[in-house]
Amino acid sequence: MPNHGAYPLRSLEDLQAVAKVGRQRMSPAQPKIMVGMATCGQAAGATEVLKAVREVVTQDKLPYVVSETGCIGWCSQEPLLDICIPGRPRVTYGRVTPARAKQIIRALPEPKPQWALATMPGDENTLTGLYTSYLTGEDTPLRGVKSYRDLPLFKRQLRIVMRNCGLIDPASFEEYIARGGYTALWQALRTQTPQQVVDGITKSGIRGRGGAGFPTGRKWQTVREAPGSPKYVICNADEGDPGAYMDRGVLEGDPHSVLEGMTIGAYAIGASEGIIYVREEYPLAVARMKDAIQQSETAGLLGTNIFGSGFGFTVRVVTGAGAFVCGEETALIRSIEGKVGEPQQRPPYPAVRGLNGKPTCINNVETWANVPVIVARGGEWFASIGTPGSKGTKVFSLVGNIENTALIEVPMGTTLSEIVYEIGGGIPGNRECKAIQTGGPSGGCIPASKFDLPVDYDSLTAAGSIMGSGGMIVMDDHTCMVDIAKYFLGFLEDESCGKCFSCREGTQRLKEVVQRISEGHGVEADLVLLEELSWMVREVSLCGLGQTAANPVLSTLRYFREEYLEHIDHQRCPAKVCRQLITFAIDPVTCNGCGACVQVCSGKAILGEKNKLHTIEQAHCTKCGACMDICKFDAVTVN
Amino acid sequence: MPSLTMNGITVEVERGTTLLQAAQFLGLPIPTLCHEDGLAPYGGCRLCVVEVVNGAKKSLQSSCTYPALDGLQVFTHSARVEKARRLLVELYVATCPQSKRIQDMASAMGVRRVRYDAKHELCIQCGLCVRMCEQQMMAGAIGFSGRGLHREVTRPFDTTSDACRQCGACLYICPVCELRCAGPDAESVLCNGCLNISTACLQTYNNAMCSLDPCHACEIDGPFRADVRVKLQPQIEFPVLAKK
């Protein structure tokens, strides 16, 4: 990292000097090309796009700056390519292929409106409260291309945690500072006492974003008052819910926000060591975080005597082996200590006796990323967002049968229907929305009839689900709720640590019963058994995993009992998903004998010559559905 | 000294006492499977759950691990506790029906039916053997591997371990191995249905956990066993219940 003559940073002026460099990097005088290189982008092919961009820039000797950026949250349009030309709004192109990227760049400075998704003339930085314009000249919007602030996907969002994601180069320390980064740390260290920082957090009303929603201020106060030294702060980045990737997005897109939050937290509670517990499956997040730590150490923002305040703090990264249960705080602590990741009895709570028996403050990635903004803008400002019981915003990963698969951040209290139909753009293929699953495996399914439910901790809990870390899986009417319960139970029986008999054996037996029902062998008494067993697993198990493990069953039973009964009484799967209860057939009128289905049938169950009517031999049909997927004429029917 | 009430009785205990110890002091019977004096509390079997009222919060907690804190109200046999224990024991019997201790427990609690298919597992993973080996025998030759569905007690890398002195303490402490049914003529309260299932021959563990002579498992896995097995087939729905 180049030294801008100011390291170690000691004052606000030093920060401003770095910020100036950062601003030049963010909006250079030459055209700048940005590729979204978070894991989601890379999975969609951003690596090839970036390679193609670099190739064309070197080959044609173009005077352009090529930069990486994090995930802006528009997952369904990845890979994303952004062009920033001085004096013009930033233009985002979606689903870019290497060939198309080359075409776009060769055409510069002329834009390609036909491929453009949106333009961004500027954005409001929630940290500073200031509107930053990327324009150095006049706003010349592209014809027919909407601005980010008019897009339903972005219009309703308020980005506190994701304030920098997709806007800065996550590898650049300077760009983070240019966006107001580390001023909150300066403010806390030099203008506030630790108790004032804790009071600010308490006043903000922020609750833990990891899922359980414990008031962060109260936790900090407990750790601050707990006797013992050294104290620790831990960032829980062991995100493991299927379909949830909020924490990854933040770690990869804005690692310094988490570091800054942790440093402020450490100052407030009197900790000297921080640990970021990331799962091994997030290699990019681990790399980004390690880079960020090194940068901060070089700049003197980690280490001893930060900002000349006399306060010292170090951070290290610990990678977890990918056990879901290690997101539970006591299991996480044991994992860091090198023991088997099994939850322990609370009390004593980690806030009193945590890592190495010392007071430990564990917060989720998202909670830490919120901290600098709360310090910079004050607890009152933060408390003005959201609902009375749940303050601020929440990041959700909106996935499943939804038009805009996206990472979104909305104020608490936004209703589910706003999230699904406005931000998410509704269900693809004119299908009907059936339910939304929130909170991952520990959460529950909320039916479409309850979509006026505001999303906050208490409303979701009352509806039989939980906020969880923020996964939202939208399901259309082709989803079988028995099958969904079976899927989540399968996940849980694998991921239960196995310590408590009730959870280990309970999840297995729950799955056994649900499986029996999905195969058409269930009896009505099974529903009572499911309810009783679920109750027992919830009541008796030690940790949060066990206590919520039955939620997928309980919530589907609560809202979709008829569907269970349909499986039991009539051996029928209304959504036509449960394999044992469905049969595939070929409609003799529609089938033109193209033979496509014969090719894909792994069981060789489809008979018929080319251009003649095909039939399915039921005895050999494995009900994989491949024929249905391949048939262009919708001739394969399922009953 | 923390002062708390158990079933309405006020008791003062020393700091660091668990609820289970306090209950035992008062003579309140709490069933356990994974607890032994002299071994660190584990909280795995969950049978010792009691209802704890801490401020506004009412919850079930395992008494062997929960510390006796000042001002707690504890109920060791409330309706909620009893219901949870009964449902739990039903699950235990279904998983490990050959254990006399589990069957006795079920019978004492009035569990009269088991609604799950019997699994005949050899191990309930209470962790007693692991703790015995580590904390009393100072060997640490066995431990848990895997999680959830795939969790099991095993030796490092599944091979015979030099750390194992074949002392048999693990076998001695096991609540499931102990008091195995000794055959069709044995005088016991067991139904003998346990002969209908394959017994835990610990040789399957590469002899690492088998040094008892005579071995409980081998004893009944003798020639007569096969005859009995034929005689009792087809397997009755659930052994314990058939008799009651």
**Percent of residues in helices of chain A:** 25-40%
> Mind telling me the C-alpha Rg of chain B?
20 Å
Main sheet properties of chain A: 5 strands, mixed
Shape of chain B: globular
**Largest sheet of chain A, order of strands side by side?**
2-1-3-4-5
Q: Supply the number of helical segments of chain A.
A: 25
Proportion of strand residues of chain B: 5-15%
Any chance you could write out the topology, listing elements then pairs?
The complex is a heterodimer of chains A (639) and B (244).
Chain A: H1 12-26, E1 32-36, H2 39-44, H3 46-59, E2 65-69, E3 81-84, E4 90-93, H4 98-107, E5 116-120, E6 122-124, E7 131-133, H5 152-155, H6 173-178, H7 183-191, H8 194-204, H9 216-225, E8 231-237, H10 246-253, H11 255-269, E9 271-279, H12 283-298, E10 314-320, H13 329-336, E11 360-364, H14 365-377, H15 379-383, E12 393-400, E13 406-411, H16 416-423, E14 433-438, E15 444-447, H17 457-462, E16 471-476, H18 481-495, H19 501-518, H20 525-540, H21 544-548, H22 551-559, H23 561-569, E17 584-586, H24 596-600, E18 606-607, E19 615-616, H25 626-630, E20 636-638
Parallel strand pairs in A: 1-2, 8-9, 8-11, 9-10, 12-16
Antiparallel strand pairs in A: 1-3, 3-4, 4-5, 6-7, 12-13, 14-15, 14-16, 17-20, 18-19
Chain B: E1 3-6, E2 9-12, H1 19-26, E3 49-54, E4 57-62, E5 73-75, H2 79-95, H3 100-109, H4 128-136, E6 143-145, E7 152-154, H5 169-173, H6 216-220, H7 223-232, H8 239-243
Parallel strand pairs in B: 1-5
Antiparallel strand pairs in B: 1-2, 3-4, 3-5, 6-7
Helix pairs in contact in B: 2-3
